[in-house]
Design a protein that fits this description.
Blueprint: E1 4-9, H1 16-30, E2 36-41, H2 47-54, E3 59-63, H3 80-85, E4 90-93, H4 96-101, H5 106-118, E5 122-127, H6 131-135, H7 139-150, H8 156-159, E6 162-166, H9 180-197, H10 200-205, E7 208-211, H11 216-223, E8 230-233, H12 240-251
Parallel strand pairs: 1-2, 1-8, 2-3, 3-4, 4-5, 5-6, 6-7, 7-8
Helix pairs in contact: 1-2, 1-12, 5-7, 7-9, 11-12
The protein binds 2-phosphoglycolic acid.
The site of 2-phosphoglycolic acid has 13 residues, from strand 8.
Length: 252
């Protein structure tokens, strides 16, 4: 039985005081709940203040990106070793905003995935097609490529630390959520591919989150799909009043 995961991707929003306040509200709302793993991923400058607010709670800290080299002369980049050092347990990699707006390649994302796992982080690997790709019936091909290239060369033991997030690009921040059936179809496909690439047991254990305009009103229906193991939440993770009902939907 896979435990549901609800992760908040705060993207490039917040301030010190708002980050502290939101983290405290999430901690208070989650309390001692063990039926769902809650993760919050603030921007880099707020990892410290949010990490402090999460201390002693069941809410885990994650980052939104990391570089593919452990240390060195890479001005402006952040190593996954540093993220682990400041208390992160998770890192989001391959988000569509990084693939499409920052030009990250499959190859770069693969390097990042391997190093982040080596540094002891759990990786939330995002995969997903654009509207044009969906309309030209390339969804399976695209998500398979993101998956296969993303985890290429990762040892089976480390694959247990990978969480997939299916995030159709056309659903991110647009208010157009995939229907539960559309999400389930892609999640089941991804799970079958993980089984082929790794093992049936591994695939049965791997969490596959859905992301793209998840809101309190649609979370329960999406999370009830057999291959949907929770969500990666953008806009609705910025207010506790929106995020906590989604966490609640993860408890079922
Ligand atoms: P959204 O973003 O919930 O605002 O659509 C999801 C994501 O990009 O992870």
């Amino acid at each position: 039985m896979r435990k549901k995961i609800v992760a908040g991707n705060w993207k490039m929003y917040t301030t010190t005081s708002a980050a502290r306040q939101l983290a405290r509200e999430v901690v208070a709302g989650v309390g001692n709940e063990q039926g769902v793993q809650v993760i919050v991923c603030p921007p880099f400058p707020y990892l410290g203040v949010v990490g402090e607010a999460l201390q002693g709670s069941r809410v885990a800290l994650g980052a939104q990106n990391a570089y593919c080299v452990r240390e060195g002369a890479f001005t402006g980049e952040v190593s996954p070793a540093m993220l682990a050092d400041v208390g992160c347990h998770y890192v989001i990699l391959g988000h569509s905003e990084r693939r499409h707006q920052l030009g990250e390649s499959d190859e770069l994302i693969n390097k990042k995935v391997k190093l982040a796992l080596d540094c002891g982080l759990k990786v939330i690997l995002c995969v997903g097609e654009t509207l044009q790709e969906r309309e030209s019936k390339q969804t399976s091909q695209v998500v398979e490529r993101h998956l296969t290239t993303g985890i290429a060369g990762v040892a089976p033991a480390a694959l247990a630390k990978v969480i997939l997030a299916y995030e159709p690009v056309w659903a991110i921040g647009t208010g157009h959520t995939a229907t539960p059936a559309q999400a389930q179809e892609v999640h089941a496909f991804l799970r079958s591919k993980v089984a082929a690439l790794w093992s049936a047991d591994g695939a049965a254990q791997m969490p596959i989150l859905y992301g793209g305009s998840v809101k309190p009103a649609n979370a329960a229906e999406i999370f009830q799909q057999p291959d949907v193991d929770g969500g990666l939440i953008g806009g609705a993770s910025l207010k506790a009043a929106d995020f906590l009902p989604i966490v609640q939907a993860g408890i079922g």
